[in-house]
User: Fold these one by one.
Assistant:
Number 1:
Amino acid sequence: MLQIEDVLRDRGSRYAVSGGPVQGRAWAEAFLADLKRVKKFAKATHNTWACVFSDAGPMKNDDGEAGAGAVILKMLERAGLTDHIVVVTRWYGGVHLGGDRFAHVVSCARAYLDAFQGAGAAR
């Protein structure tokens, strides 16, 4: 699992991003269960995720952050990354962010994709 904590903060909300390889829905569910074993991720307001399975196509879950899963999914599809889950975690800070929340999801997903590609290049 590649995890980047404290990617950004805005008006009290904090964001992190996590991800790793998955092969099917059961693996994705196991990945999410592992993530939520860490108390702070279990208590997060939103754990929004998406992945594109090579055999079953795209899946996403907004976890109450309407539209955020679609943003992550679109970025994964553009990057051509399959059988890999990306989870953007938000701890709500008490202030509604409006459309800025989508920009923050993009920033988190981009940070993950950049780190993942950098880790692959370093191998």
Number 2:
Amino acid sequence: MVNALQEVLFIISRPFRSLFSHEKSVIPKILQEDELVASFIKGRFNKSIGLLVATNQRLIFIDKKPLWGLKVVDFYNKKVSSIVYETFLLTGSLYITAENEKATIDFVRKRELIAFAEDLKSRIFS
């Protein structure tokens, strides 16, 4: 559960973190040949701040450090069984269940979260 102070501190520090954000630059290297990006949001997953990219085939969380490393976690759309979101004052959390794995992406801007989650639900579950 996110408290109000964490939420405000996260939003305030967002412009500073953007200076060191390199996730978008690695998207072309990670995509498969016939994969297309539908949308993306910034948030925190497993204590890593990065980018959640929705494609026509999978959800990909990317955390690219400026100089040292890359973390990529993906969930194939056909294995996703539920998408739930919860909003707070300024941000929200997205909960994804794929087979027996659960992922929480939190500290996503509220407006971006709602649009992303609803679009994702309509594409995956229609």
